[in-house]
Amino acid sequence: MKNSIELTAENQEVKGKSNVVVALLKRSDTSVIVATLVLFIVFAIGSSSFLSSYNLFNVFRTTSLYMFVALGQAIVLVIGGMNLSLGAIGGLAVVTAGVAMDTWGLPWWMGIILAIIVGALAGFINGIFIVRFKLNSFVVTLASSFIFTGLVFGISKGYPYTGIPKGFTLMGRDGFLGIPYLFWLMIVTLFVLWYVFKYTVIGRQILATGGNIVAARYSGIKTDRIILLGNVLSGVFAAVAGLLWISRMGSATPATGSDWMIISFAVAVIGGTALSGGAISAIGLGTAALMIALINNGLIMLGANVYFEQSFLGVIIMLAVLAESFRMKLHSSRKR
């Protein structure tokens, strides 16, 4: 009888451990969390100055900027689309804010409002062409990226706007408790994102539209409105990312957003946002942004050739995709 009880207890313990493994495998952000922890440990061991408060402050600040850039891409990926004009919209918002604050002399808060309106309008234009004319998001946003980029350099003539009020740069340069304000803002934003997709009707409708648009339509969801909303939000997030970039740099540079393509896709995809739509992870986005920031910072700390940065990043993305594929296969085999 005693042996039977012991065996039962052992079986329950094994089953409990198995359930934990299955629960971890179900999460799309498991691989990126593990990879980020490994990278953090490697860089901490490899460089004595990596864990300095100054360096960590910069890492967390860069993480926040990357996350907001990726959020603009993730919100359209989750509905089954993409936004190749994300960087151009961010640049257009930056130039709008620069003109408002520097050329027109408006208060910084008015510059913020105008930039966000421009970002939302640019996203709306993308959404309208996708929804009304049934065009592929790749084609629409590729074309609009050239249009918006032309406007950016046509308005600015390629010159930066340096008359940015000091009050506007506080968000991008200062912090609280040794942690950048940008990072606190990122945490709050990710919490809101998690809540929206887990507990609100609109969040579930977005996921349903990206998961299976035909089924979503049959269930009564107005998918065209959801797609339009996703593109508008993408434009808004691009504008917000551009504004935060100004706050960090202290000037509105027209070239802002030119390198956002790889950042937005890398953070979004590595962070668990499904390219086919229907899945997004707030924790994954934040962790993936930290991962990319660690790679950029760690390579410099270890004295690696920064000219190979994108090659390193490409390798990391490939490994992350392979890890995710392995996780899905392992999870499927455990279910069977």
Automatic annotation (TrEMBL):
This is ABC transporter permease. Pfam families: BPD_transp_2 (PF02653). The chain crosses the membrane at residues 32-53, 65-94, 106-131, 138-156, 176-197, 226-246, 258-275, 307-326. The keyword Transmembrane applies. GO terms for cellular component: plasma membrane. It comes from the Bacteria. InterPro entries: ABC_transp_permease. It comes from Cohnella terricola. It is found in: Cell membrane. It is a multi-pass membrane protein. Keywords: Cell membrane, Membrane, Transmembrane, Transmembrane helix. GO terms for molecular function: transmembrane transporter activity.
